[in-house]
């Protein structure tokens, strides 16, 4: 119950943000391309999928993290000013101090939290891939999540850093003399396949650069989706 309630909340939240950013949905090619390359749309699609399949609690980690920062920002920018305007001078000073503390905490921990989310998403992919192999979840889950991560790799410096670090660690393990040659060969084939798959997004983007400016997707930020940040764009 709580699992689906959490995802329904995420769906509503992202839906409102996307509506404010894109307006009424349209079916023309330029609108669809721009929407599909928007990080909030990507997280909304995944939220809808996770909401209606067999629960995998691990998938909630990114959404919970984003919600925490969204809540803190909403408290600082909306709730505290509203409370200050209706309270005495002493309380207003207290609210101002609290607002500064929240802002400082968010600024100090935002990058750390986004790195945490990026590694969590790598772990989630491993979980759904193994789950598909042992028939614990749908075969569609790793395919859909792989495409999602491919887009995140293109759009997010945090995701790229996470994948590069994981690959570096795996490379050091595979290159160890004790590693069987068959495992090393399989690993090299797998990394080559993953690299080619990830690069298709970059190739598509390069091809789209020849299209008219009005039909080109707007470049996105390098950080994972956050409803608060999208509202401020």
Automatic annotation (TrEMBL):
Compositionally biased residues, Polar residues: 208-225
Q: Please tell me whether the keyword Membrane is annotated for this protein.
A: yes
Q: Where in the cell is it found?
A: Membrane
| Disordered, as annotated region | 208-233
Q: Which Pfam families match?
A: TMEM33_Pom33
Instruction: Give the record's keywords alphabetically.
Output: Membrane, Transmembrane, Transmembrane helix
Q: Name one GO cellular component term.
A: endoplasmic reticulum
Stated membrane topology is:
Multi-pass membrane protein
The alphabetized list of GO BP terms reads: endoplasmic reticulum tubular network organization; membrane organization
Name the domain of life this protein comes from. Answer: Eukaryota
The record's principal subcellular location, in a coarse class, is membrane
Q: Which InterPro entries match?
A: PER33/POM33_regulator, TMEM33/Pom33
Q: Is the keyword Nucleotide-binding in the record?
A: no
TM spans (from-to): 6-22, 43-64, 124-146
Family assignment from sequence similarity: Belongs to the PER33/POM33 family.
Q: What is this protein called?
A: Uncharacterized protein
What is the organism of origin for this protein? Malassezia yamatoensis
């Amino acid at each position: 119950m709580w699992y689906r309630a959490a995802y329904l909340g995420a769906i509503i939240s992202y839906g409102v943000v996307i509506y404010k950013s894109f307006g009424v949905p349209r079916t023309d090619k330029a609108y669809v391309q721009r929407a599909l390359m928007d990080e909030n749309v990507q997280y909304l699609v995944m939220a809808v999928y996770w909401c209606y399949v067999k629960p995998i609690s691990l998938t909630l980690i990114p959404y919970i993290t984003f919600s925490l920062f969204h809540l803190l920002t909403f408290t600082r920018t909306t709730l505290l000013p509203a409370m200050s305007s209706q309270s005495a001078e002493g309380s207003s000073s207290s609210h101002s101090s609290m607002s500064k503390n929240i802002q400082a905490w968010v600024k100090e921990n935002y990058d750390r939290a986004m790195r945490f989310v990026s590694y969590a998403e790598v772990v989630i992919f491993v979980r759904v891939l193994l789950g598909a192999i042992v028939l614990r979840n749908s075969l569609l889950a790793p395919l859909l999540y792989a495409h999602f991560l491919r887009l995140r790799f293109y759009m997010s410096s945090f995701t790229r850093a996470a994948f590069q670090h994981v690959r570096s660690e795996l490379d050091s393990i595979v290159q160890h003399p004790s590693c069987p040659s068959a495992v090393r060969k399989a690993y090299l084939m797998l990394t080559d396949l993953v690299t080619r798959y990830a690069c298709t997004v970059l190739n598509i983007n390069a091809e789209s650069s020849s299209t008219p400016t009005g039909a080109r997707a707007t470049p996105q930020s390098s950080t994972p989706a956050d409803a608060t940040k999208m509202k401020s764009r």
